[in-house]
Write a structure and sequence with these properties.
binds iron/sulfur cluster, 7 strands, disordered N terminus, 2 domains, 18 helices, Rossmann fold, seven-stranded mixed beta sheet, alpha/beta, Tyrosyl-Transfer RNA Synthetase
């Protein structure tokens, strides 16, 4: 596939305007004067749309509390694409002093047959939690829990199940009818994750998601409406572009950088990443390159370069042919990732010492030292 085809594919997948209009989601722009532009995720359009987040902002202005919730299906492959979501949550939590609920959805992994037994992901749940909290979360106002061993969540899911029809779930998720019933019931569990801060703590919620997850927001809002519970609000995020030019995915390892990747692997992935560069250095120096289609530029802009002046210098340097992909930008990104990884690993040690404080239930910390994943 040549670069023009890759570019077209990227553009097709980011046709957000059409999708927003279709689903009645609002652009975030009008809310920015109230939210502020200090955070790059809002300032640079990483958070680009919302459903009713204005209600949460109004609440915050009146010093009323709310909660932010985002789940994590435990797996060994946390990568930099996940970090945008959790760093955004950390920013919102700090700015508004809201509670953060983190369901570790081992039940999702089980019903979608990613693991053979429910207990298999216990250790991974704790490890993923450590990685998430090492982004700078303090234990205050954090409620982490492993979904399958939290009776209240299973109770709420059962309670909400009578407010959803099989046909609604089938249509929303595009099910064929051949799936196991756990996958159908899982949408009730997800609704329980989302609505639990409201039903049990009287906190309206905001859920930051990618557009592909909006279907669960719609299903949950439908339950909330039927049960006369305050509807969840949502924020929509553009994730990092996959390094290959295709969407980033854990199942396509070359598209992303995992926290567990070693230096050699990180260098290989970044040096092979799709850019908007020319075929030769000489040509690039003469004609410049195209940062609009460059995955390295995307990673700088959405996550690694916080300074706007530095970003505009990169953009100009790229356009004017002063920067060369493999000589300037890629080595720069590699260094940033390696630094980030090193700092992250240091912070993890502190988090592990206090991990129990982040959880709403008891946890068995000894599993973190075991080879075996099971519980
Ligand atoms: S010079 Fe840098 S920003 Fe421009 S296309 Fe190459 S890697 Fe991307």
């Amino acid at each position: 596939m040549n670069i023009e085809d890759e570019i077209q594919n990227i553009e097709k997948r980011t046709d957000y305007d059409r999708i927003l209009e279709e689903f009645g989601i609002s652009r975030i722009d009008k809310l920015l004067p109230k939210i502020g532009r200090e955070n790059i995720f809002f300032r640079r359009g990483v958070v680009f749309a919302h459903r009713d987040f204005n209600k949460i902002v109004d609440r915050a202005e009146q010093n009323k509390k709310f909660a932010i919730i985002s789940g994590r299906g435990p797996s060994s492959d946390l990568h930099y694409g996940h970090f945008i979501l959790f760093e955004l949550i950390r920013f919102i939590q700090e700015k508004y002093n809201c509670d953060f609920f983190l369901p570790l959805s081992d039940d999702e992994k089980y019903v979608f047959r990613k693991v053979d037994s429910i207990g298999e992901t216990y250790k991974l749940s704790l490890e993923n939690a450590v990685d998430i909290f090492a982004l700078g979360f303090k234990p205050d106002n954090v409620h982490a829990y492993i979904s399958s061993i939290t009776p209240r969540i299973q109770y709420l899911a059962l309670s909400f199940s009578v407010n959803q029809t099989y046909n609604a779930i089938k249509a929303a998720l595009g099910l064929t009818g051949e799936e196991n019933v756990g996958t159908v019931f899982y949408s009730c569990i997800q609704a329980a994750h989302i609505l639990h801060p409201t039903t049990d703590h009287n906190l309206p919620v905001v859920v930051p998601v990618g557009l592909d997850q909006d279907v669960f927001i719609r299903l949950t809002r439908d339950i909330a409406r039927k049960r006369k519970i305050t509807s969840p609000t949502s924020l929509y995020i553009r994730f990092l572009k996959g390094l290959t030019g295709k969407p980033m995915s854990s199942s396509a390892p070359e598209s992303c950088v995992f926290l567990s990747d070693d230096e050699k692997t990180i260098k290989r992935k970044i040096m092979n990443a799709l850019t908007g560069g020319r075929s030769t250095v000489k040509e690039q120096q003469k004609l410049g390159a195209n940062s609009d289609v460059c995955t390295i530029y995307d990673w700088f802009e959405k996550y690694f370069v916080k300074d706007d002046k530095e970003m505009s210098e990169i953009r100009k340097g790229c356009k004017d042919g002063e920067l060369i992909c493999g000589l300037d930008c890629k080595p720069r990104l590699i260094e940033m990732i390696l630094n980030h990884q090193k700092q992250h690993n240091n912070r993890k040690k502190e988090v592990i010492k206090n991990l129990e404080k982040y959880f709403d239930h008891e946890i068995d910390l000894s599993v973190l030292n075991r080879e075996d994943d099971s519980f």
